[in-house]
Amino acid sequence: MAGFHGVVTTYTTVVMFLALGAALNITTENRLRTVLMTGYNSGVRPKINSTEAIAVYLDVALHQVIEVVSKSQLLITNLRVKHYWKDEFLVWDPAEFSGLSKIRIPSEQIWRPDIYLFNR
After folding, report:
1. For residue 27, what pLDDT is reported?
2. Buried b vs exposed e over 78-116: b needs ≥16 C-beta within 10 Å?
3. If DSSP codes are grouped into helix, strand and coil, which group holds residue 94?
4. What CA–CA distance (Å, rounded) separates 106 from 102?
5. What's 90's domain CATH number?
6. Whole-model pTM above 0.90?
């Protein structure tokens, strides 16, 4: 019976160790994301001084010419548009997060500028 008790104790210890390890195994990125997104409102412009404008920079790259219709002077293209800005509410000290200086957050969760591309 002593051998059986030792097996049960070892099994219980391993299960407890794994459960404790899983609970403490919050990655640095998850911790940073929690800190950044707690209280973040994607409907509010990300500027500490709300009277200042937000500089938004655009990169436009021609990806593909789909069709050229010379008679009607029509050019149909596929463009890639990237826009960049500084969100003053999504900043942190990398030293506090194991040197992590970049993080990816889905765009649906953060403020995005209203940008409309059109041609007249």
Report:
1. 85
2. eeeeeeeeebebeeeeeeebeeeeeeeeeeeebbeeeee
3. helix
4. 13
5. 2.70.170.10
6. no
